[in-house]
Design goal:
Blueprint: H1 5-21, E1 63-70, E2 73-79, E3 93-99, E4 106-113, E5 127-136, E6 141-149, E7 159-165, E8 173-178, H2 191-194, H3 208-215, H4 218-222, E9 233-237, E10 243-249, E11 254-260, E12 267-274, E13 281-288, E14 291-297, E15 308-312, E16 320-321, E17 326-327, E18 338-344, E19 352-358, E20 368-377, E21 380-384, H5 392-395
Length: 397
């Protein structure tokens, strides 16, 4: 229906009157001229490395993320980035998106906001990375864990942060941050290592003697009283309901796997060291046919490197290295990305999605998402590059 400018102005004034006076039900009958709507793409497949928009037509902003599946909906949590190098610090918080099909994601807003309180551990400008949310069936709480670095302290704090919510999309309330398992030795730590007098500054780094000392708990002893270092991380809930955090520790030289307490908001005191001295970051884990599989990256800062994988019959190990799970062109650079999470597809057997990030530290908001299917071959995870693919690929292989 066409309107001349005078009639349109009158209608607009009437509409404004109804809005500000709170009169409802009338505006539905008032013809309002609208601008041409921006077309929103509907996805039917994944396109790794391409721009991925939400259902509002805006680029998804959920980096270093993880997925929670709850009552028929997937919730994607990740770091909200802003433009420029300042985006490497937390200026906004943790973003949440929701989806029924894994292709199309609705913006649910900021699940956890950074604080304006300069005394808060999560004050604006801190480093808040790799948020993961798990659901506790006993407490009916959604629990978010993340790697936290205190504002202005670089990467020296190496803390674990935790927040909770009554709803999957939030808002989440920050509880506290800490270093895990202060005053507790790992379950797989030899008694003789506890009493060693070797200190980190007594040996030259990266020599055979230093590497041997690292494997024998050089940094575990150093951090025993204050708690273990906590950096790149993921969360995992086992089939028995017990939850675990897997994280880079000991100056990123060794992974640790720590069991959470019954309400998932603290640590149980049980933890182990995995691949000591192996220099692993970006841990991601899944369980298939009763075995636990882990995919990690090496430590080269923001630059991509060759992924690693491992397997164990118990989550606490012994873990066995399986080598690089990626094959094909650019497999030595994990297709120019770094692992962040492995997503089991609900309702599909042996269907797992490898999630990774293609970082852009100069302009973090332009980081891209790499999602690829995992294929098991001779009890080893295999990841091949796909320019595009969809969930049917799991049933057609």
């Amino acid at each position: 229906m066409k309107m001349n400018h005078r009639k349109y102005l009158i209608v607009a004034l009437i509409a404004t009157f109804f809005v500000y006076t709170g009169i409802s039900g009338v505006l539905a009958t008032v013809p309002v001229q609208t601008t041409k709507e921006q077309s929103v793409q509907v996805y039917h497949s994944f396109h790794p490395g391409s721009i991925w928009n939400d259902t509002n037509g805006k680029v998804i902003n959920a980096h270093g993320g993880g997925i929670l599946y709850y009552k028929g909906t997937y919730y994607w949590f990740g770091e909200h980035k802003v433009a420029g190098p300042i985006g490497n610090t937390a200026q906004v918080g943790v973003h949440c998106y929701a989806s029924k099909d894994l292709y199309n994601w609705k913006d649910e807003g900021i699940a956890l906001h950074v604080s304006d309180d300069p005394h808060s551990d999560i004050t604006k400008g801190c480093v808040l990375e790799r948020p993961k949310v798990i659901y506790n069936k006993k407490t009916h709480k959604f629990v978010m864990w993340f790697h936290l670095e205190l504002k202005g302290e670089g990467y020296s704090a190496a803390r674990a942060g935790v927040a909770v919510s009554d709803r999957p999309e939030g808002p989440y309330t920050f509880l506290r941050s800490m270093r895990p398992n202060a005053g507790i030795w790992p379950l797989n730590f030899k008694k003789s290592w506890e009493t060693s007098t070797l200190q980190p500054d007594s040996l030259k780094g990266w020599t055979p003697a230093w590497m041997k000392a690292v494997e024998e708990g050089l940094f575990v002893r150093r951090d025993f009283k204050a708690g273990q270092m906590f950096r790149d991380m993921t969360a995992f809930v086992d089939t028995d309901g017990k939850a675990y955090l897997i994280y880079s520790s000991e100056e990123n030289l060794t992974l640790q796997i720590a069991q959470l307490n019954d309400n998932y908001t603290g640590f149980s005191g049980k933890y182990v060291r995995v691949f000591p001295g192996g220099h692993n970051e970006g841990p991601a884990i899944f369980k298939d046919n009763g075995k636990y599989y882990m995919i990690t990256s090496g430590c080269t800062g923001w630059a991509p490197n060759s992924a690693r994988s491992g397997v164990a019959t118990s989550i606490f190990g012994q873990w066995k290295a399986l080598g690089n799970p990626c094959v094909g062109n650019d497999s030595d650079l994990t297709f120019h990305s770094q692992s962040t999470y492995i997503l089991p597809v609900h309702g599909m057997k042996n269907a797992f999605i490898f999630m990774s990030d293609r970082w852009n530290p100069r302009n973090p908001i332009d980081g891209r998402y790499i999602w690829l299917p995992i294929k098991m071959s001779k009890e080893k995870p295999i990841i091949k590059w796909r320019k595009s693919w969809n969930l049917n690929d799991f049933t057609n292989r």
